Amino acid sequence: MTGLVLLGLAACSVPPPPTSVQQAWRSSEALLLDRHGQPLQQTRVDKQARRLAWVPLKQLPAELGSSVLAAEDRRFQEHGGVDWLALFGAARDTAGGDTRGASTITMQLAGLLDDSLSPADGRRSLWQKIMQMRVAGHLEADWNKPEILEAYLNLAPFRGELVGIDAVSRVLLGKAPSELDQRDSLILASLLRAPNARPERVAQRACALALSLPRPPACPALRAYTLAVLNAPQQPLPGPADSPELLPQLQPQAGQQLRTTLDARLQRQVRAQLREQLAQLYGRNVRDAAAVVLDNASGEVLAWVGTPGAGGSARFVDGVLAPRQAGSTLKPFLYGLAMERQLITAATLLDDSPVALATPAGQYVPQNYDRSFRGPVSVRTSLASSLNIPAVRTLLLVGLDDFHGRLRQLGLQLDRPAAHYGYGLALGSAEVRLIDLANAYRSLANGGQLSPWRLVAAAPVPGRQVSDRATSWLVGDILADRSARAAAFGFDNALATPVWAAVKTGTSKDMRDNWAVGYTARHTVAVWVGNADGEAMWDVSGVSGAAPAWRAIIALLGQPGEPPGPPAGLEQRTLRYLPAVEAPRQEYFLAGTATDTVELTGNQPGPAIVYPAEGMIVALDPDIPAARQRIWLRASNAEGLHWSLDGQQLGRADTDLAWTPNPGKHQLALQDAQGRTKRQVIFQVRGQYGR
Asked: What is the separation, in whole angstroms, between the first and last Cα of the chain?
């Protein structure tokens, strides 16, 4: 401690009572506690000096007190603050050229209590010395000897930045103050006069000091021990380190014990699960993971793991806060918005077939994860099975700007305009933070009501209704529907939990990010795996990457509570499709949108040329041999049709066809068996062979 500033000390010379000094003591460390008051994270905040706890004198071994008094103040018990015999002796020796001090422990304490009494250039002025003696007299009058010695041992600098007996014992010697033995006491007492003296000099003092004790240790052994201690690296503190990620968020003050909303036991378990999942993914180029657990009702964060720790590639990158591409995890909010506006229902059939969309950057041709197409598919199946093309078609219904606006309303920090993301926004081209995504899913669990997440206990903040309550419930019902999910994932997968849970996975472009986000009736859990540096993973999907850890964390949470029942504004019908593109089922509808039958009609999308598009210009690469270059002809809804290029038949159009291009303008057509043209485009190939 650099000193406790006492107002008016130079004028009145009255020190504070010992209780005030102890209360003013501040450790250089901060301690985060969990929601139950259990230690969670200890860290150093004050970088000027290293201070730990205040240690009562009765918890210190008697050898320490004896050694300190022998080294610094042999007549401590007899004098009244100033040892006049020692003072006169020091004056005599100084006059003879042998400079030495004669400050008692009480006088040294006076200097520790008031910065104005500290020497400016290594020596106190005459006025400072007089004031120091005066304050020492007041200390002796107002304090008892044990209180003086206790304060001195807690305030004195011992070595380097180590201040106080607790810090020097634990960091220099690696033990608690109560465990100090005679050798330790001799070393610490020898450091008080010159804390930064060379180890050999400290060893000499310790040996000389030992001679004043009744049963001194042998000097060679004491010297060896002293040199070993002072030359060794400082000992790490044994404090808890379960949530280092929270320190930048909470920024605790030195000496503060801050209670958080986290559960220490769950925090450790979640970190262990992430490490275990990374071990399972060994060999697939996956090094990092993050997870967060929220209480649905309060928004309190129960677990926050931004990096798995050992083995992670970026220990200072908090994966809970690092923006990453969201992948398919944004789809629930897209379908929810479309259903809320009654543009679709959960029973609506969407066309899962190839589509090409013109954008300023060229043609946008979305693909499903498995590169297959399912034709007419319901909204329920499209969302639960995470089909991409139906999502893009839904975005066309909703509108890019409106979907972008809804995501921002949900607290997702999209810092670019909607046009920047384009149609890829339906498939999660935007970067989001794990904590924000988790809180957005929490709003679904809370019936469309969004409120802030929090790390410390505080008065609840009223939520705001972002999405319709009935629609939010319906989205959750779809995300919890194992039958609808089975079309893409099968029934036995990492998303299947023994309790009711709504969950969505997502994988970003080139497998750089992998997500699993979902909720039970009581908790929301979000998990991300990937690489902090953005390097792609190898053969990792949503089900194999983040989902196993998500499911394990859900299991850790215990009783999830009763699944939410349908709110007002929904009605249930027995639904069937004609023809039976999907099996009959019980389906929920927003009031006024219910139907018993969905029938395919002739109004379904007709054949279309997906690639190449009308007016497209294809440039040949002169560095690639002509025989190796191909243009893939691709159509949708083209059963029974064939390709015709410049009047020449090429083959069936219901599968992709590779064509070796040649320069010039070309007319490509879809024709039926009678040669009638159903669709056609004109495109151009530029470039010359032979280079």
From this structure: 78
Q: pLDDT (tens digit, 9 = 90+) per residue, 550-561?
A: 999 999 998 777
| Cβ atoms of residues 21 and 4 within 8 Å | yes
Q: Could you give the CA distance from residue 63 to residue 458 in angstroms, rounded to a whole number?
A: 48
Output b/e per residue, 640-678; b: 16+ Cβ within 10 A: ebbbbeeeeeeeebeeebebebeeeebebbbbeeeeeeb
Q: Of 13, 27, 67, 72, which one is the catalytic site residue?
A: 72
Which residue from 198, 196, 133, 135 is spatially nearest to 163, judged by alpha carbons? 196
The amino acid at 250: L
H or E segment and range at residue 238? none
- Calculate mean pLDDT across residues 219-236: 94
Q: Nearest to residue 478, comparing CAs of 294, 331, 374? A: 331
Q: pLDDT for 60-91, tens place per residue?
A: 999 999 999 999 999 999 998 888 876 765 55
ω before 661 within 30° of 0 (cis)?
no
**The pLDDT value given to residue 690:** 33
Annotation says 639 is catalytic: no
Q: Hey, which residues does 587 pair with through a beta bridge?
A: 573
- Encoded tokens for 252: 């605790």
The yes-or-no verdict on residue 624 having pLDDT over 90 is: no
> What is the three-class DSSP state of 79?
coil
CB burial string 324-341: b at 16+ within 10 A, e below:
bbbbbbbbbbbbbbbbbe
Place of tokens 């005679």: 182
262-498-503-544 Cα dihedral, nearest 10 degrees? 90
Angular region, 110: left φ>0, alpha ψ -120 to 50, beta rest: alpha
Contact 30/244 with Cβ under 8 angstroms? no
Contacts of 228 (CB under 8 A, 6+ apart): none
pLDDT in tens, 344-391: 999 999 988 766 655 555 555 565 655 567 788 999 999 999 998 899
Residue type, 113: L
**Which residue among 67, 169, 185, 328 is the active-site one?**
328
316: left (phi over 0), alpha (psi -120 to 50) or beta: alpha
- Whose CA is closest to 177, among 54, 28, 70? 54
pLDDT at position 358: 54
Q: Which residues of 197-222 are buried (b: 16+ CB within 10 A; e: fewer)?
A: beeeebbbbbbebbeeeeeebeeeeb
CB 170 within 8 A of CB 236: no
User: Can you tell me whether residue 640 is helix, strand or coil?
Assistant: coil
Q: Cα separations (Å) of 273 from 165, 266, 516, 532?
A: 39, 10, 14, 18
pLDDT at 106 over 50: yes
What is the Cα–Cα distance from 670 to 642, expressed in whole angstroms? 6
**To 10 degrees, the CA torsion angle through 7, 9, 12, 14?**
100
Tokens of 194: 């010159």
Return the pLDDT at 118: 72
Q: Is 328 a catalytic residue?
A: yes
For 134-237, list the strands marked E by DSSP: 157-159, 162-163
The whole-chain average pLDDT of the chain stands at 87
Contact partners, residue 164, CB within 8 Å, separation at least 6: 1, 51, 52, 54, 55, 153, 154, 155, 156, 158
Q: Residue 471: its pLDDT value, please?
A: 98
Sign of CA dihedral 276, 277, 279, 280: positive
